[in-house]
Amino acid sequence: MTAVGTILIYLIELYILLIVARAILSWFPLRSGTATYRVYSWVYDVTEPYLQLFRRVLPPVRMGNAALDLSPIVGFVVLIVVSRLVRLIFFG
C-alpha cells in the first residue's frame, strides 16, 4: 500500500515540476523547430488539459493590453493539497 502512495506522490511532484517548467518557458521567446520549442510544446500538451479546468472557472486577469493567467498558480496549489492528502492517507 505504501508503494502506491509513493508512486502517486512522485507523479504529483513530477506534474508540479512540469507546470513550473511551463511557466518559466513561457517567459522566453521560442522559435518553431528548435529543441526548446519542442520541449515547450510537449510540456504544454501534457499540462494544458489540467490547467484548462481552472481557466474555465478563473479567467485571466486583464492588465491593460496584457492578461495574467492564474491557472498555473491555482493548479499548483491544488496539487500540493492533493499531495498532502495522499501522504496523510497512505502514511498517516
Summarize the model shown:
74% of the residues lie in helices and 7% in strands.
How is this structure best described in words?
- The chain is mainly alpha-helical and 92 residues long.
- It has one domain (2-91).
- Helix content is 74%, strand content 7%.
- The chain has helices at 2-25, 35-57, 71-91, and strands at residues 61-63, 66-68.
- The protein has a two-stranded antiparallel ribbon.
- A hairpin with a 2-residue loop joins strand 1 and strand 2.
- Helix 1 crosses helix 2 (35-57) and helix 1 (2-25) packs antiparallel against helix 3 (71-91).
- The model has no long low-confidence stretch (mean pLDDT 93).
Would you spell out the secondary-structure blueprint of this structure?
Layout (H helix, E strand, L loop, with lengths): L1 H24 L9 H23 L3 E3 L2 E3 L2 H21 L1
Antiparallel strand pairs: 1-2
Helix pairs in contact: 1-2, 1-3, 2-3
